[in-house]
Amino acid sequence: MAGRNRLPAHPLKGGPRGMPPMREGPYARGPGPLPPHPGLVEEIRDGPFGRGPGPLPPHPALIEEKLAAQHQEIQGLLVENQRLAATHVALRQELASAQQELQHMNHMAANMQADKEHHLRELYDKSMKLEADLRANEPMKAELMQLRADNQKMGAIRQEMTA
Q1: Which example biological process does GO assign this protein (predicted)?
Q2: 21 and 30 in contact (C-beta within 8 Å)?
Q3: Residues 15, 16, 20, CA angle at the centre, nearest 5°?
């Protein structure tokens, strides 16, 4: 059933379903080439290069005028394209310069931040040292106040003795 309604690849007698055999190769026998379709013949005859009725080609002066206008338009487009290309190059250079400046500024900001952090760390370390020194001096301060109080008592006792 799979091969139903199939024809052999190369029919032995004639073309498919009773048609005449096809010509194959330059020395094959059989009917010659088919004549062109009548619609195509009309199209060729009525076309711009045909001999039959149809529009006449434009006058050469009109063609020259159109070509001159197109040439002028192309020249204008070329000038505009060159201007845009120059602007594009200038903008690319400006962008590269701005990116380089931004990179430099980022580097400078990072250096300033590192310096600031280093300075703050030094100040913090110094304040911690001073605070430790202050705590270490607390007992001495209390002892000094005790000695002053003792000194005043002795001075008062001396005045009593001399008086």
Answers
A1: cell differentiation
A2: yes
A3: 30
Q: Where are the domains of the chain?
A: 61-162
Identify how many contiguous H helices and E strands the chain contains and give both numbers.
2, 0
Tell me the two tokens of residue 57: 């080609």
- Amino acid identity of residue 15, one-letter, is G
- Rounded CA-CA distance 147/153 in Å is 10
**Distance between CA atoms of residues 135 and 127, nearest Å:** 12
pTM to 2 decimals? 0.43
What are the tens digits of pLDDT across the range 79-117? 999 999 999 999 999 999 999 999 999 999 999 999 999
Q: Which amino acid is it at 106?
A: N
Decide which of 42 and 115 is more confident: 115
Closest residue by Cα to residue 93 from 81, 101, 82, 105: 101
